[in-house]
Each structure stands twice: as C-alpha cells, then as structure tokens.
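Loading example: each entry is read as two labelled lines plus one structure line.
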Amino acid sequence: MPSQSTATKQFMSRAMSVFAANQVKTEGDDLANWGTDWTKSFKVDPLAIVFPESIDQIVDLVKRAPEWGVALVPSGGRTGLSGGAVAPNQEIVVSLDRMNKILAFHETDKIVHCQAGLVTQRLQEFASDHGLFYPVDFSSSGSSQIGGNIATNAGGIRVIRYGMTRRWVAGLTAVTGTGEVLRLNHGLIKNATGYDLRHLFVGSEGTLGIVVEAEMRLSSQPEEQQVMVLAIPELNRILEVLRAFQNAIELSAFEFFSELALQKVLAHRDISRPFSRSSPFYALLEYDASQFENANETFEAVLEAGNVVDGVVSQSLSQATTLWELREGISESIASYTPYKNDISVRIGEVPGFLEDVDSVVAQHYPDLEVVWFGHIGDGNLHLNILKPAEISIDDFYQRCHEISPKLFSLIQNREGSISAEHGVGLLKRDFLNYSRTNEEIRLMRELKRVFDPHCILNPNKLLTA
Amino acid sequence: MPSQSTATKQFMSRAMSVFAANQVKTEGDDLANWGTDWTKSFKVDPLAIVFPESIDQIVDLVKRAPEWGVALVPSGGRTGLSGGAVAPNQEIVVSLDRMNKILAFHETDKIVHCQAGLVTQRLQEFASDHGLFYPVDFSSSGSSQIGGNIATNAGGIRVIRYGMTRRWVAGLTAVTGTGEVLRLNHGLIKNATGYDLRHLFVGSEGTLGIVVEAEMRLSSQPEEQQVMVLAIPELNRILEVLRAFQNAIELSAFEFFSELALQKVLAHRDISRPFSRSSPFYALLEYDASQFENANETFEAVLEAGNVVDGVVSQSLSQATTLWELREGISESIASYTPYKNDISVRIGEVPGFLEDVDSVVAQHYPDLEVVWFGHIGDGNLHLNILKPAEISIDDFYQRCHEISPKLFSLIQNREGSISAEHGVGLLKRDFLNYSRTNEEIRLMRELKRVFDPHCILNPNKLLTA
C-alpha cells in the first residue's frame, strides 16, 4: 500500500466511527475507478470511496461531513455522460454499490421497493420474472443503477411510449444535506397533499439529496414487437412519416439516423446495408407486432406520397435485433473518431428547422468536419456528433469544438430547446445552463439547493457552481 | 351601489393604476360568487375581484401587492372541494376568467398552448376537433379551468390509464410572488437541465405562483369504449378481479361502489338495478371495445372463481352511459344527506384492509351512521361519505364528524396513505397535513414557499399556515 496523505489518514480515522474498514477505499486504482463516470475528460481526484450498507450510515456520514470539511459525491453505476458523478476535488464518493437489494414487491400495485444501488437490468429481469415489464431501457442498463437513473431522470429508447424514469418513480427515499431522511409518496398514485418533493429529486443530479431507496412502478408486458426501417429522401419529410404512423398505430420507438451514421455502422460491423440504394436519412420504428397490417398500410401510404422511398420489416425477433443494430451500433462505430457529442432536444415540430440550422453553421464555419446525426426523433431528442478528422490533433479538435458550443447552444435557445435532453448537466454543461434556463430560474435553483443542502456538501459544483 | 368601505375605496383607487374599471368588482354578489369554491362551509370575505387580461397586469398587481398590503387568491373555475380558492380574509381574488384563449397549436407535438383560464371542456373539444383527445376528465370539466387543474393536479375517472393532469403539462408559465415570469419547459419531452420547477407548481394550489399559461399535451383518440359492471360478493375479492382484468386487457377505468351507494342512486334516479340480486360491492370497468373477447373470457374466469357473482356489459354507447350513471350519480344522490366527504388514497393493495379498518371504527363508535363508499379503486382513491341521519342537527353531525377525522386520518397514516388524494389541501385539510407529510417535509415546504413567495402574498394560509 502506498503511503497515505495526511488528509487521507485523517479521513480514514474519522470514517472508522461510521464505517467498517472494508467499506472504505483510498487506493489509487479504486479512486480512479469510482471517482469518475463515462466521461473521460475531467480531472479525477477523490479523497476516498465509501460503500455504505444502510441508510443510517449515510445519515451519519452526511451529518458529520460539514464538521469534517468534506463534500460528498453520490455515485451509482457511473455510466453518466456529463460528469455528474466525477469527484475532481478531494470529495468522498458515496457509492451505492452495496445497497442493491429488492426490499419488497407489492404485486397488486405492481411496485418494486428497492435500494438505490439496484442495477437497472436486475429490475428489468425481476419484472420479467413476474410477468411484468420495466420499460426504461438504454445501452447502459447492465451497469446503471436505479438511484442514478432517478438522479438524472434517465430516458432511453422507448420514451415515446413509456416516458422517462420520472413516470415510474412511485416513491423515493432521500437523505438531504442535513441528514434528514425523506420518504416521499409511498407508492401512491394519487396524493394531493402539497408540493410533490419527489419530483424535485428526480433529475437533481445528487445536489439536493442522496436517493437511497425507491418504489418503482412496473408496466404490463408488451406484446411481441415488430421493427421497420424506412429510407427517407428529405429531412422535412420525416415528421410527415412520424405523424402518419402515430395516427395509425401506437409507436414504441421512432428513431432516426443519417446516411453518414449508417456508413459508420456498416464499416464497423458485419451487417449489410438494409436497402440497395442509399438515402440521406433513415427512420427506425418499433410497434406491437399485432399492428402489422395497419403499419403496412401506413407504409404504402407514405411510400405513395413520396415521404419514404424504401422500407424493410422484421419477420422475426432476430431480424428485429439486427435492424436495431443499425441504430444502436452508431455510438460504438464512431467512438474511434473521438466525437464531440451533444445530447440536445427541441419540440418535435422544430426538429427539421433546427437540423438545418446546425448543418448550415457547421458547413459555413467548419466545412472540413463531419456531422453524424442520430437520435430519438419521436421525442425531439437528437444526438449530434462531430467527428475528429484524422489529420487534426485532439487538442486542436477540442479547441474548435469549444468554439462551436456557444453557436450550437444559441441555435437551441432560439428554438426554446434543451442543451441537455437526457444526459444531465453535471460538469459538462454547467457553464452553459443559461442557454436553456433563465437567470431567474437559475437563481431559484440555487435557493432550492440552499434549502435542501445548506452546508453545500452534496455534489458541489455540479449543475450549479458552488 | 352600496357605500364602499374605506379599504375598498382605497383599493379601487390603487387598482386603477393597473386595471380598467370593468376589470374590478367589489359588489356583494360578485364577492360572494368569485370569493368561494364548491365548498360552502368557509367564511367568504374578499376585498375585491380582479379580472386581468394579460400577464403584464398580473405582474403589476403582484409587484404592488406587498406595498398595498393585500394578499392574492388565484381563482379558476372555483370547482375545488378543499377551499383552496376561498378568500376568507379581505384578499384580492385574481380571476383567470378573461385569460381563456388558445394561443397556439403545435400539431406535430400535439401540444396546445393556452391561457390558464381555458375551461377544461373547451380543451377537450379542441382536441376532438383535431382528431385528438385530452384525457383528464371529471364531473366539473364544464367549468373547471386548466390553470386550476394544474394547481391541484386534477385526476378524475381515467387516471388508471392516462395519469393525472401532471402527465399532460408539457410546459407552464407562472408568475411568482416577486412578479417574475417563469416559462418552464417549453413543451419539451426531454429536458435534463436541472430542477424541473414545472413539477413543483403542479399541485401547489396557487401558493408558489399564479399559473397564467400552459402547454398541454394531447393524446391520440381512444377507440370506442365498452363498460362492464360486476357484482362482487366480498370486499377482498375486488383486487383479484382488478388483477385478472389488468392481466388481460388495458383498463381505462376501474371504479367501485357499495350496495348502499347503489341504493341511493336508484332511489334518486329513474334507473333500474343492473342485477336481479343485490351484492355488497360493485365494480365498473371501462376498456377498448375491441378487447371485448378478452374481457368476456376474463369475466368467465372470475365468475368461475367466485370472485364475481354477476355481470352486465354495454352493447351500445347509450348503454355505456347508463351504466356510468350508476357510478357518476352517487355524489348527487347523496347530496341531500349533507355527507361528510373525504377524498383519500392508499396503495391499491392496502384498499381492502383499509376499508375494513374504517368500517370497524365507524361501527364501533358511530353505529347509527351510514357510510357510502365509492371511488377510483384502480388508483387506490376512495371517496368516503358519512351520511347525516335525518334526526341529528347539522351542527351535531359536523361535531361528530370532527371527532371522526383524527381517527380516520390515523388509519390512513398507519397505511402510508394520503388524506387528500385529488381534491388538494386548501383550508379543509391544512391542519391535518401531518397525517400524510412529516414535520420535516412540512418544514421544507414552508422554505420552498418562502423562496417563491417571500412576501407571502400568494394564497396565504392555504395548504400551509402563514
């Protein structure tokens, strides 16, 4: 074991009044591992990692933190993309890894009462084992935790049908910055007894309290799903296609990607192009397989109208999976280009105009940069990825991207959109928050932070500057 | 015109700096009309009623209110049942009646941008005219306003399928107690840029800000609905029935009422008993008519299992309406008994045990009182109505009911339920809030109130004591 700093030694001796020795880690590898999330561009420098095993331990820690002069970073599966779980400044990382149990299942209510460290996929499996369905799903479901999902109001691929995490939080328990334990809403569907504090914690990124338990509502199991991929000749036809299908069937997903995105996936994976000819844009639709006749009729209508030029439909589960790969493989296939990623949203009706705005700014100022578009267009949520040209250094590339950010965010602001659709603010977007929230909103957020965390020990400098 | 008090004259002269003469009312009938809601047991004594026609006028009024020493009561359709819109203490009632326009329709987003004074039924009709559906519906839809629905997070009869008002609020504009105009969320589906203040205003009963505009999301039109009424032999079988049907079909409603409730409706209206024999309890189900085969199969199964003893199904829209009357006629049919009404909720699984708790307390302490139960059992929301016996005076009856309240609320507290499921707290439940919220939650609510309304001019003494 390397020699410990004075600060580390002091914390270790203090921590023993709350934790057992095996609940605290201070070694370099551990600090690096638990001190960061999927973002890799922020400084990582925690003082220690603690692994509480009870709410009482968390309360103890929170109550002593001001006196000990330490700040706390709540930590789940660390799959975030905004630095919300990064500890850059000698914080104590409070990992929920060991609070990962299902505590109760209220069958009639379809509610699972669980600890916040439960991995999303385990909740999905539990639901499935009981003939039910937990509908929030995204690529990091295998390691993200329910508490983290709540703290960021996680979205994913089926928001168009099932909404965000918020909709499934029937109750939650949080420890505030003064160490008070709030048990909010208790799984009730109807509860009109004043301000719904539960909703304040959803999406608060660990800045108001540490979510320690949740009552998650489950859904009925969906029917078998069918997947359709469509080739779309022009941007402004996509919304016509969305509308036509929404009028005919209930969609579980309506995703979109550009020809460039498809090329990157095809270059990266052993999949063949779904259509003989290329098209500037593609849409991927998912819906109940029993709706296939309505879906086919709608396809004929949009083909007739010239809004799509080709289409392919899954005839089996494995074909559905392969079609989904065209969309889900994008992130991985462009990773080697160290893309400048942005997760943004506008109202659905604003999408085509906004895409054109951005493409034109990039074309004007950065004609040598490739832009890969994809996203959940049915929710107005777009993932913008600018690829680093091979001949430019990473520093130069980031420099240019930093110039692009304010231009991009201004375009979003003009259309009343969001600079972070589902990834949160964290460290990444903190200094740009005013592009989506007014000064008065930010002032009120600060006041709310002060109410719940008067000593400013919970995830300081995330979302709002301390 | 009767002579005006000094306070009235002073307010009138001041108000002319903000409003035109025809925007202010101070006469007795008007004060009585706009100064109250559907509750009739609270003192009503407003100083004046104002009818703003713009956000600017509301901002002006709010900014001057502290200096003028007046408090403001935001007022919608005044159909509330908790006294939330009552002005008992020389307040200025701020009626949204003249801010009732639809400002924009974002077709692709299915969003209606409207002023807060829009009557619920007008939004429903607008949706229908555009081939869409606004799913929040209840008996006061013809006069309740969208702003009021948001302020109370209105629920109603189809919550089991469509959720509360909260789910349909894609954005809202509110004027805070300092006269700041917050335009929140702008109709976005995904927006992870910090605390979602929108959700704080939903259900805040006009105590944090005056909701002046909203972006309401619409749904697709549902198919034709079928209605089934079931006779249920024992209380504890109701949830078996709910579960069986939920596993087979998607329910739009699952309502419940007792034999006594049915008797009151049959005595009050010209409808015949749906079954030849009486049964202690009944359930009313609504679902997509296309699901009738699954529904019939499920009916056979629950009949076979002894969980229901009889059933009837609508074969036409008019039959469906008649069956709904059995449930919707209850409130009116018991009105002459001046019932002591309580709108409460528990988790669905707790419903049978809770009903037995209450019946046993009433039987033990008040054997001469009749209890009429009905409600939205699929949401855990029960309407408890204790009828006044003819031979007891109204004062004596209220006296006895006041004794019952703490006993009832304790039973709710034991089961982690809500003392107000959908009617709100207002004046009616304010002093009982601690049965559903902890002292720390109430303390935090007070702090939040102070952040948004530091001068305490917005609906003071509602929800929280000033």
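The longest strand of chain A covers residues 209-217.
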